[in-house]
Amino acid sequence: MKKTLFILTAGFVFACNNASDKSGKASSDTATASKAAESEVPPGLTQAEYDKAVELIATSDCLTCHKVDEKVTGPAYREVAKKYEATDANIEMLAGKVIKGGSGVWGQIPMTPHDSLSMDNAKTMVKYILALKNAK
User: Fold this and answer.
1) Of 17, 19, 117, 112, nearest to 65 (Cα)?
2) 77 and 86 in contact (C-beta within 8 Å)?
3) What pLDDT score was predicted for residue 104?
4) Could you tell me if 88 and 130 are in contact, meaning their C-beta atoms sit under 8 angstroms apart?
C-alpha cells in the first residue's frame, strides 16, 4: 500500500510540475505532495534508506510470504518489528537469516535462503522492517 501511495504521490508531483505557472514556480500542491511522501518514512530511516528498502523488497520474492500488516506464510513485518529491537546486533542477525534462510522462530515453515542478496542490502531491508514498529 505504501508503495502504491508513493507512486501516486510521485505521479501527482510530476503532474503538478508540468502545470507550473509561466514564471517556472510549481504550485503549492507540489510542496504539499512532497511533504506527504517524506512523512511516509518511518522514524529511524533516511529517505534514501526507505526508498532503497522499498525497491529491494518490491523486486524480491519477499512479498510472496510477508506483508506489512498481515501474516501470510511468514510473519507480518510489523510482528517482526514488535519482536526485535532495532539494534545493530539484531539487524546483523536478521540480515543473516534473510540471506541464509531458516525456520523455528515463527513456525516450522522454513524461510527460503536469499544467498544472492548482499549483507548491506539485507541490512537495509531489515532496518526498514524494524522501523515499521514506530511507523504510523
Assistant:
1) 112
2) no
3) 87
4) no
Residue type present at position 129: I
Whether 50 and 42 have beta carbons less than 8 Å apart is answered as yes
Set of cell numbers at residue 80: 517482526
Number of Cβ within a 10 Å radius of residue 38: 11
C-alpha cell at 37: 511522501
**pLDDT confidence tier of residue 127, bands split at 50, 70 and 90:** very high
pLDDT digits (tens, 9 = 90+) for 29-53: 333 333 334 458 888 889 999 999 9
Cell of 106: 515463527
In degrees, rounded to 5, the angle at the alpha carbon of residue 84 between the alpha carbons of residues 58 and 38 is: 45
pLDDT, tens only, 100-126: 998 888 988 999 999 999 999 999 999
For residue 13, give every residue at least 6 positions away whose Cβ sits within 8 Å of its Cβ, in sequence order, or none. 30, 33, 34, 37
pTM above the 0.90 mark?
no
Task: Give CA–CA dist 41/56, Å, rounded.
Answer: 15
What is the three-class DSSP state of 108? coil
